[in-house]
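User: I'll paste a sequence; please echo it back and then give the predicted structure.

Assistant: Echoing your sequence first, then the prediction.
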Amino acid sequence: MRIISKEALAKRYERIYKQLKALLTQTEDKVARMATVAALLHHKMPQFSWTGFYLLKEGDLIVGPYQGPLACQVLEKERGVCWAALNSHKTIIVPDVNKFPGHIACDPSSKSEIAVPIFKEKDRFQAVLDVDSHHLGTFSEIDKFWLEKVVELL
């Protein structure tokens, strides 16, 4: 993985954010908007190996629009990074998924992960933006800041 500076990373996110802000005006359909976010992020961020959404449906986290290798269709309840983000109501950054208790290995080559919860209204959960990388320690506070801004567009 080519390492880029914090400044270059922030500028890349800023360009992606502006592009998404314009693109997401074309429809109010949530699935279409999530598909656009997943595709753009995945193809503009080479360090992302899996980029997508898990949707809360009838108490289960079900895979939604994504880019990358085959995903787990349903995440085991109360396990893994996505459930941790949901339950804590905050973004979770995991530098080494093998050290995260209860990590769900949908892709065994995944090494680090970030999960950003998405809420419709106060405390009413809708989905999780989940991003994996094949490299350890990929995600930082810069990723957290910009991915949280991106999900606000949804």
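The chain has a mean pLDDT of 90. The helical segments are 6-23, 30-44, 80-88, 141-152.
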